[in-house]
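Appendix B. Raw example, untouched.
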Amino acid sequence: MSIDYGEVERQFVAALKADTGRSLEEWLAAIDGQGLTQRNDIIDWLRRQGFMFAKASWIERIRNNGGRPIYES
């Protein structure tokens, strides 16, 4: 059985507000508010906010994709 990464991503984004208190858009604004532009700086900052590496990296990749989910249909 293959993994539907699009569905996993949709669930991750949908649960962000409930899980962290901030929506995806709010996290992206918070990153911008920190003045962070480099991949590793963004991931490190998100990790300090409580994200595990994989989820911090996922948010950084979405940000780098213009705020659009990576697996968006």
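End of appendix B.
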